[in-house]
Amino acid sequence: QVQLVESGGGLVQPGGSLRLSCAASGSIFSINAMGWYRQAPGKQREFVARITSGGGTNYADSVKGRFTISRDNAKNAMFLQMNNLKPEDTADYYCNGEIRATSYGSTWLGDYWGQGTQVTVSS
Fold it and tell me: Quick check: 22 and 40 in contact, CB under 8 A?
C-alpha cells in the first residue's frame, strides 16, 4: 500500500507565498517522477509542475517564475514553493507520483494520487 499525503495549503493574500509538501509512505521500492496538479472549482484538473528522480523540472506556463518544485529523495517527499500568488491560483492542489511499490519480493509501477490540499488566494 502506497499513500501520498499533501499539507501546507491555506488562505493567503494576493502576492503572498505558501509551501506545499507531499509525503509518500508505504511499501515503496522507488519513486520516478512526481508532480503537482490543481483543480479549481468548476474546472478540470490541470498540470502545475513535475520533477524527475534526477531533479529535472518542468512547469505550466501560468506558474513559471513564481512556483518552484523540489524533492527530497531520501525522505520520499516533494515540495512546491509558491510565490507571488494570484487569485487564479485558488484550487485544490494534488500530489502525483509514479511509484514502484513492492510486496513479497515483487515490484510494480503505479500512478498514485494524494487527497489534495486547498489553496485559497483572496484579500
Answer: no
Among residues 49, 52, 50, 51, the alpha carbon closest in space to that of 63 is found at 49
Note the pLDDT tens digit of each residue in 71-109.
Answer: 999 999 999 999 999 999 999 999 999 999 999 989 989
Give residue for cell 491555506: 10
CA distances (Å), origin 104, targets 15, 22, 24, 84, 96? 49, 26, 20, 46, 25
Determine the Cα–Cα distance for residues 101 and 43; give it in Å rounded to an integer: 31
Q: Strand order in 77-82's β-sheet?
A: 2-7, 18-26, 77-82, 67-72
